[in-house]
Design goal:
- The chain is about 30% helix and about 15% strand.
- By secondary structure, it is of the alpha/beta class.
- It has a three-stranded mixed β-sheet with strand order 2-1-3, covered by helices on one side.
- The chain has five helices and six strands.
Length: about 180
């Protein structure tokens, strides 16, 4: 009886081993599942110019922001006019990012950017509210004829600069450095 039991166990073990070998050796059935590789960010090239530490061409990761490109260029210079730069904007391959410099007639004061009426050009003066090409030319002509303005209030001596215009620009102008 023990011998029969050993024979049955031996046959079952043989069948099991044969089945496992056959299963392992059988080629897979059906269509193979195709695994995609994880996405890799390819670098893009951007051109950074203007008031940055190191203007030039930079490779930055895809889906980068303007801020990333400016940081790659070393950051802003002290003379950078950042008021119109959207640091959160997405950049794409081939973009040019220009950081303008503050205009020479501008200085930084307690209330922000101030136009120095003793050194500003006609074009710079035209950017002030209420000052068009005609008034800007009068300011430059007055300055050339009578010399530098001693005070901001002395701008009212220029023909055409009335109280209403002066009130619009008095917080935006300076006579100092």
């Amino acid at each position: 009886m023990k011998i029969v039991l050993y024979i049955v166990i031996g046959i079952l073990t043989g069948v099991l081993i044969t089945s496992l070998v056959w299963l392992a050796a059988t080629p897979p059935r059906g269509a193979a599942i195709k695994l995609s590789s994880p996405p890799t960010q390819r670098p893009i090239m951007v051109h950074v110019t203007g008031a940055v530490v190191s203007p030039g061409l930079y490779y930055i990761p895809e889906d980068s922001r303007v801020n990333d490109a400016i940081l790659a260029a070393g950051g802003f210079l002290d003379t950078a006019d950042t008021s119109f730069i959207n640091l959160a904007g997405l950049v794409k391959d081939g973009d040019k990012i220009h950081v303008p410099e503050l205009m020479p007639g501008l200085s930084i004061g307690g209330s922000g950017l101030l136009v120095n009426i003793n050194s500003a050009t006609q074009t710079e003066l035209e950017n002030l509210p209420g000052i068009g090409p005609t008034l800007a030319k009068r300011i430059v002509d007055y300055r050339n004829q009578y010399g530098f303005f001693d005070t901001v209030d002395s701008l009212k001596d220029v023909p055409g600069i009335g109280e209403a215009v002066f009130e619009q620009i008095q917080d935006l102008i300076t006579v100092g450095p």
